[in-house]
Design a protein that fits this description.
The chain contains 2 helices and 6 strands; from the N terminus they run E-H-E-E-H-E-E-E. By secondary structure, the chain is α/β, with parallel strands linked by helices. It has a 4-stranded parallel sheet. Strands 4-5 form a two-stranded antiparallel sheet.
């Protein structure tokens, strides 16, 4: 399962993506809202599986299930939350 980094195009989020890449991890879903900003430039030279707009990601959140008494998101194993407006 991929790592999920919200706010992944922002300063801190893209540093998290870079750190994961440096550790050999590129199975990453980046969630953000680059819109008409230059934040997309922070994702250059980064390796990740998919970029998802924050509204599309929020639509997927109701699919969170309770497994073994723990809340789990079925599309990823770890969530780094750096999204200010998420």
């Amino acid at each position: 399962m991929p790592y999920i980094v919200t706010g992944g195009a922002g300063f801190i989020g893209n540093c998290v993506v870079r750190t994961l890449n440096d550790a050999g991890i590129d199975d990453i879903i980046v969630v953000d809202n680059v819109a008409k900003t230059d934040k997309w430039m922070n994702l250059r030279n980064k390796k990740y599986r998919e970029y998802i707009h924050k509204s599309a990601f929020l639509e997927r959140l109701p699919k969170i299930t309770w497994l073994g008494g723990k809340r789990r998101y079925p599309h990823g194993r770890l969530l780094f939350n750096h999204g200010a407006g998420l």
